[in-house]
Design goal:
single chain; about 240 residues; alpha+beta; five-stranded antiparallel beta sheet; two-stranded antiparallel ribbon; about 30% helix; disordered N terminus
């Protein structure tokens, strides 16, 4: 898989069985694997918002909508609690197709979340949610706290994702990932019981924001994720 001319998209090479109309597997490089792995860093509230609550399978969409509609009279801290629940900060790396949050408390590209403290510094407490009431004086905590040092998460981001870029990976239709080798490719042909090699076709597709959202949604609904996202309405 190679990066497309647009930095917001990556390309993915699919191996399609035209007889069964399914994706057997995809060849992918670092960018796509990092995108898949990064899905595990998205908070549940962020996933629900990205997928649009009405399109969620199950009851999470209804729960999300209930929080939105609930009157501030019933919230202990109405200035902050709804944003914490509905727009949680997420350590998402830029270029990974999905932007977890558009609010001002979102994690920056450096991997360090914004911390705030009381301007009077009357207590040794900090918060991720700006304007949280100080437990000592009651004023809004909006003074940026200085973050020093590093941790494993920020180091991971600075090094550029999760996997090495010199390897080509195989991604199965159900998103199982493994390093690609000639032996593994041959083994998979046997696993899929492919008898007619002429039915196999390679197709390169581009993955951008829209496809990323569809892939996230499909991963929560079915096991034939790549087929569901890329073969629907596709001319073979």
């Amino acid at each position: 898989m190679e990066s497309s001319s647009s930095s917001s998209k990556v390309s993915l090479k699919l191996l399609i069985d035209t007889n069964t109309e399914r994706v057997l597997f995809a060849e992918a490089s670092k960018e796509f694997i990092d995108f898949l792995f990064n899905l595990f860093r998205l908070p549940l509230g962020t996933v629900t918002r990205i997928l649009a609550k009405d399109g969620m399978v199950g009851s999470l969409g209804k729960l999300y909508g209930s929080i939105e509609k609930l009157s501030d009279d019933y919230m202990k801290n109405p200035e902050q609690d709804k944003d914490i629940l509905l727009k949680p900060s997420a350590p998402v790396i830029s270029g990974y197709l999905l932007h977890a949050s558009d609010d001002k408390n979102a994690t920056t590209n450096s991997g360090a979340s914004n911390l705030y403290m009381c301007a009077k510094r009357c207590s040794n407490v900090v918060t991720y949610a700006i304007n949280t009431r100080c437990p000592s004086c009651g004023n809004g905590m909006a003074h940026p706290a200085r973050f020093v040092g590093s941790n494993k998460n920020t180091t991971l981001v600075e090094e550029g994702g999760f996997v090495k870029g010199v390897v080509t990976y195989i991604v199965m239709d159900d998103l199982e990932v493994c390093p690609m080798s000639t032996i593994s490719a041959i083994t998979m042909m046997s696993k899929f019981h492919v008898k007619d090699i002429t039915s196999l076709q390679e197709k390169v597709v581009e993955l951008g924001m829209e496809e990323g959202i569809k892939l996230l949604k499909a991963s929560l609904q079915c096991k034939n994720v790549l087929t569901s996202v890329f073969l629907k309405n596709m001319t073979i």
